[in-house]
Amino acid sequence: MKDIHDIRDFHNLRKIKLSSSLSFKVGISVFVFSFIYFICVIGFSGYTNTLFSTSAIAERNYCLARTIAVSLPQEYPVRLFKQVREIYDSLPSDVKDDYKSPGYKKLFEPVFTDEYYTLRRTLIKNVDNNLVSWINFHIEDSARNKVIFVIDSDIMEDGRYDAGWQGSLDNYIHSDRDLAEYTVHSDPEYGQTIIVRAPFYDPGSGEILGYVSVGERERNVTTNNIAFLLFFGLILLVLTLIFIVTSVGGIRRLVIDPIILLSEAATRFSKKQDRETSSHVFKDLGIRSNDEIGLLAESMASMEEDIHGYVDNLKNVTREKERIATELDVASRIQKSMLPSELTGYNGKLDFSISALSRSAKEMGGDFYDFFAIDDDHIGITVADVSDKGIPAALFMVISRTLIKGSALLHHNPSRVLSDANHVLCERNDESMFVTVFFGIYTVSEKKLRYVNAGHEYPAIYRADSGDYSLIEEDHDLVLGIMENVEFNERELQLNSGDRLLLYTDGIPEAINKDGSAYGESTMLACLNRSHDLRGRELLNLIRDDIDTFASGVPQFDDMTMLLLEIDPGE
Question: pTM of whole model > 0.90?
Answer without folding.
Answer: no
